[in-house]
Amino acid sequence: MKIREPAVAGAFYEGTREGLIRQIEWCIMHPLGPGTTRKEKEPDVTAVPIVISPHAGYIFSGPIAAHSYVELNTYERPRTVIIAGPNHYGIGAPVAIMVEGVWRTPLGEVEIDTEIARELMRYCKILEPDWYAFMREHSLEVQLPFLQYFYNNSFKIVPICMFYQGIDAAEELGRAIARVISAREPGEIVYVASTDWNHYEPHEVTVKKDLKAIERVLELDLKGFYRVISEYSISVCGYGPVGASIVAARELGVKKVRLLKHATSGDVIKVYPELYGDLVYSDEVVGYASIAFYL
């Protein structure tokens, strides 16, 4: 069985089991984090089939990402997690999937769900099996330790890496994801879309741009989302996975979408400036958001 070794352990997140557990708990209890590992359930919510989570280093985006995983932990104990992220390196197939093997992090190993991966490929013809597309990619890897922290490796994953992120790819992938989720019991399969939002502009600019794009997600407006990021030059790196979340949500009959937390790397630096050396709070920041979709 192929083992996908961690590419960014010790860089994007702590490289030892003990250090990584402490870091995840730091993210949860951070002033910008959720402050708890489990929330009160809302009486009218039956499931959370989809979340959107950022993928930068944990000292920057971890507190914001923690909101998505606490929300999942409140409602779900998934058997399988489909994770889609952008391909930052341009290696491999345009829309790549891993069909078999194991992903390893300092918290242990997680097996790929071959059955679900092959089912997705039947419904989504643009998916191509390609191990190499994932070898350096961090956007999926950084989601795993949060899932392992909450679910103790009792789940499987289906990794998807999108170099091509056009609206047609988002539509086809989103419909396939919805079809797979809807064929199971609520909460059995969940979808995590991995993205950071606007990149390397001043804090105030990034906040305004991010909220324009996020508003379209909250309204489940796929065409509007793609139009806004193009019209306002919003450098959302995982717009394909986000687009797929909008399509899947509409197909599943999602009742509401909620922005759990939005912040920038500047916000994080401002909280603990002593951790970040000479980095400047507001000059060039990256936007992060956690968003949940509810049935």
Describe this protein's structure.
There is one protein chain. The chain is α/β, with parallel strands linked by helices. It has a single domain (3-294), classed as 3-Layer(aba) Sandwich (Protocatechuate 4,5-dioxygenase, Chain B). The protein is 39% helix and 21% strand. It contains ten helices and twelve strands. It has helices at 17-29, 58-75, 114-123, 138-141, 144-151, 167-182, 203-218, 222-231, 239-252, 265-271, and strands at 3-4, 50-53, 80-86, 95-97, 102-105, 108-111, 128-129, 156-162, 189-194, 199-201, 256-264, 285-294. The strands form two sheets. Strands 2, 3, 4, 7, 8, 9, 10, 11 and 12 form a nine-stranded mixed beta sheet that branches. A three-stranded mixed beta sheet has the order 1-5-6, covered by helices on one side. A hairpin with a 2-residue loop joins strand 5 (102-105) and strand 6 (108-111). Helix 2 (58-75) crosses helix 5 (144-151), helix 3 crosses helix 6 and helix 7 runs antiparallel to helix 8 (222-231). It starts with a strand and ends with a strand.
